């Protein structure tokens, strides 16, 4: 399938290729996965109580998340190059969603660890793809767009920490 020249794109295709819209959704995807990391401390006491486990064992969950979120980003970047950012962000979002649902339903440490493993994989895919897309689509504003995208990760908790805490 040949690429459509920019001057011939109309309607939906032109909208989907709008770099500012891509940046908006990149930032939004970062907002969506932020609370796995920034909201973690709010979840620890209820998890300890629900699972009847010590703090150290609950905290292993966060270690699993961070390891999978960060260490696999180079491999995930290779997957983005091979399959494209749209597919990878959708899969990352699905994995992150499974992590949210699974962690909310976990009845054992094993289930909690597995849920946060999915979440870490998903958040890593989203993070790496969003930053990479910002850099690709804005060669003229790399610093600005990478900063805005990364700020989405921090902003995600700003909107949701208070409702989660209450």
Q: Could you name the key traits of this structure?
A:
166 residues; mainly alpha; 9 helices; 84% helix; 0% strand
What's this, in brief?
The chain is mostly helical and 166 residues long. The protein has helices at residues 11-16, 19-33, 35-38, 40-51, 55-71, 73-83, 85-105, 109-137, 142-165. The chain has one domain (37-165).
Overview of the structural elements:
Helix content is 84%, strand content 0%. Helix 6 crosses helix 7. The protein is mainly alpha-helical and 166 residues long. The radius of gyration is 18 Å and the shape is elongated. It has helices at residues 11-16, 19-33, 35-38, 40-51, 55-71, 73-83, 85-105, 109-137, 142-165. It has one domain.
Integer count of domains: 1
Radius of gyration: 18 Å
Number of strands: 0
Q: Quick one: biggest sheet?
A: none
Assign an overall shape: elongated
Query: Which secondary-structure class do the elements indicate?
Result: mainly alpha
- In round numbers, the mean pLDDT is 89
Report the order of strands and helices.
HHHHHHHHH
Number of separate helices: 9
Low-confidence stretches: none
**Helix amount, in percent?**
over 70%
CA-CA gap between termini:
51 Å
Strand content: under 5%
Summarize the helices and strands and which ones pair or pack:
Blueprint: H1 11-16, H2 19-33, H3 35-38, H4 40-51, H5 55-71, H6 73-83, H7 85-105, H8 109-137, H9 142-165
């Amino acid at each position: 399938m040949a690429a459509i020249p920019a001057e011939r794109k109309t309607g939906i295709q032109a909208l989907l290729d709008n770099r500012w819209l891509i940046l908006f959704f990149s930032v939004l995807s970062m907002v969506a996965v932020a609370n796995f990391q920034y909201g973690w401390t709010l979840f620890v006491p209820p998890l300890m109580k629900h699972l009847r486990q010590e703090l150290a064992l609950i905290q292993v969950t966060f270690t699993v998340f961070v390891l999978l979120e960060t260490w696999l980003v180079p491999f995930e970047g290779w997957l983005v190059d091979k399959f494209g950012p749209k597919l990878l962000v959708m899969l990352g979002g699905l994995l992150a969603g499974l992590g949210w649902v699974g962690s909310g339903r976990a009845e054992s440490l094993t289930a909690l660890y597995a849920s946060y493993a999915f979440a870490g994989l998903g958040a890593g895919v989203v993070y790496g793809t969003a930053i990479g897309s910002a850099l690709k689509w804005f060669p003229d504003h790399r610093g600005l767009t990478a900063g805005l995208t990364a700020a989405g990760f921090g902003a995600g908790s700003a909107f949701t920490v208070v409702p989660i805490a209450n």
